[in-house]
Amino acid sequence: MPVYFxxxxxxxxxxxxxxxxxxxxxxxxxxxxxxxxxxELLKKKNITVPIIVRAQTLEDLKEFEExxxxxxxxxxxxxxxxMAEKILLRSGLSTSV
Length: 97
What we know:
The protein is of the alpha/beta class. The protein has a single domain, classed as 3-Layer(aba) Sandwich (Pyruvate Kinase, Chain: A, domain 1), CATH 3.40.1380.20. It contains 4 helices and 3 strands. Strands 1-2-3 form a 3-stranded parallel beta sheet. Strand 1 (about 25), helix 2 and strand 2 form a beta-alpha-beta unit. The longest helix has 16 residues, at about 75-90.
């Protein structure tokens, strides 16, 4: 399975990567506005494969997931989960659910 890295804000990247045939697209920008701009650009190109995005906050994630085919991960949730896991481990409690 090929993996392409590139600047998705450029039409040439979108066209050469044949994104409509992709299993998924991953957007890892650390700026919510840039991520939203990329999502909107992909939607204008009628890309309908799942897009997995990095969100800085839960609010950003909710905004991104209003678009079809979007799944996201919010950094603040991951950080909180990681910290909670470390606290449980130090306390001698299990982290398995």
